[in-house]
Amino acid sequence: MDNVFHALSAPVRRLIIDELCERDGQTLFELCSRLTMRHQVNLSRQAVSQHLDVLEGAGLLHTRREGRYKFHDLDLEPLHRAVDGWLVRPTDQDHR
Amino acid sequence: MKIYITSVFVDDQAKALAFYTEKLGFVKKNDIPLGQASWLTVVSPDAPDGTELLLEPDGHPAVGPYKKALVADGIPATSFAVNDIQSEYDRLVDLGVRFTQPPTQMGNVTTAVFDDTCGNLIQIVSQPS
């Protein structure tokens, strides 16, 4: 859970999640292009790669190798797990 | 000074010529035997005297790791302009061309990226007229 919230704490990583929500299976090049062209976020390829590693460490992103290519897919399950069951007030519980 | 030629490193010149002419629609301009390889260039059919694309053999040991690293990260070796990127995408997909990125709006241009089957990714771009 700490990993998930830490990963979400950086605005650029939330942008990456937004972009991957649009379509799974993006290359590093595509993600870099989207950040630059759509959001004017000019980070080096290495910096974007490091942000992807943080998201992957939190389980929010998976990498997939297909032959010679490497694609990135989003996984929001860890976020749902982190939020579900947290901050449940007694009145909410009555309705469950 | 002007750019008259640019190049991509290909793993097989005959295969590359077939792909770049039959699938992409370029036209062969020069095919001059030079030892084991050829000086092999193609041009755009609407600009036969325009910039040539050299299909250059990739035998040098430095080229393999270079191409492999670019492809793994999805980085195109070069970029070509098209008028209607969606119809070009559909046409190439029908011909069995593998895309790593379908047409995607990137600011005021739309780009897509495909595999040239010779070891490179190629970007196509449609720019606002």
TrEMBL record, chain A:
This is Helix-turn-helix transcriptional regulator. It comes from Microlunatus elymi. Residues 1-94 form the HTH arsR-type domain. The keyword Transcription regulation applies. Keywords: DNA-binding, Transcription, Transcription regulation. One of its GO terms (molecular function) is DNA binding. SUPFAM superfamilies: Winged helix' DNA-binding domain. The lineage of its organism: Bacteria, Bacillati, Actinomycetota, Actinomycetes, Propionibacteriales. PROSITE patterns: HTH_ARSR_2 (PS50987). InterPro entries: ArsR-like_HTH, HTH_ArsR_DNA-bd_dom, HTH_MetalResp_TranReg, WH-like_DNA-bd_sf, WH_DNA-bd_sf.
TrEMBL record, chain B:
InterPro entries: Glyas_Bleomycin-R_OHBP_Dase, Glyas_Fos-R_dOase_dom, VOC_core. Residues 1-127 form the VOC domain. Coiled coil: none annotated. It holds the Pfam family Glyoxalase. It comes from the Bacteria. PROSITE patterns: VOC. This is VOC family protein. The lineage of its organism: Bacteria, Bacillati, Actinomycetota, Actinomycetes, Propionibacteriales.
